[in-house]
Amino acid sequence: MSAAGHVGGAQPSAASSVDLALFGIAIAARGRPGRTGAEEAAWTMLHLGEADDEPGRARAVGLLAALRRDGLPARLRLVGPIPAVQRGRLLTRATAGGVIGALDLPGERAPHEVARLLVEAALLVVPAPAHVIAAEGDATPAGGATPEGDATPAGGATPAGGATADGGGALEGGDGAKGGSGGVPDLVSAVLAGCAAGTPVLATDLPALRSVVAVLPGVTLLAPGSPDDAWVRAAAGPLPVPPTPDERWAALRRLRRSPFCAQGPTLAGESG
Where is the composition biased (Low complexity) (predicted)? Predict the structure, then answer.
């Protein structure tokens, strides 16, 4: 099961979905008096990964180290099952980069906890692994970052890879882990999770993700092969000022009205 699948139960590999209710509950908790979530979220990055997504986690740790070298007080949480050997390598990498104290490895968490952690983050990072970039590269235009909402796929916005969001399902990458980590459905699932939480997303520019960007704001795509400093610049923008609960509610409502949501459930705690 993919890390995205930790926000719900098993679904077919091509039918990723987001349990909107879990995110509604998490956002409502942030909006209680004295619980805006700003202190928890500021400067916090989050990465969702499968058990074998060590390349994505290593890239996230590298981004953390680069941000800290620039004097920014960034922190990183790695969410998803992390085998012991991989955990050791990640800790070694973080130690070498001088960021061991800024790295948190919550590991595998229950669905509602994943939603809460996303709401308590200022940025979700979704780097695509090399094998996905190689497979999708011919369809990805050369160039720099894709601005938010600026990429529209031919034929209009259609849920990519069968990814959907609804009120009864759950965020799920299906059986993607069996064929290697970070497959396209898993990446789309992770991006939709960020959109559900209202957390800005920084991801690799792939055709499947452009259909998300076309209809949902808050997602920034960087061209495959972008240098580390491009990721640092893109990450530094949203990290200091995480979204407010009202902004997160607005993002969740946009997802509910989008082509990625087959149903429009009533969300507990929603106002307006």
Answer: 138-163
Q: Are 203 and 88 within 8 A, CB to CB?
A: no
Q: Give the C-alpha separation, 57 to 82, whole Å.
A: 10
Pairing relationship of beta strands 219-222 and 75-79 according to DSSP bridges: unpaired
Q: How many domains does one find in the chain?
A: 1
Q: Is residue 270 part of a domain?
A: no
Rounded to two decimals, the pTM is 0.79
76: helix, coil or strand? strand
Summarize pLDDT for 151-201 with one digit per residue, the tens: 333 333 444 444 455 443 322 233 333 334 557 888 999 999 999 999 999
2-41 pLDDT tens trace = 445 444 433 323 234 679 999 999 999 886 655 555 666 8
The verdict on residue 98 lying in a domain is yes
CB 26 within 8 A of CB 118: yes
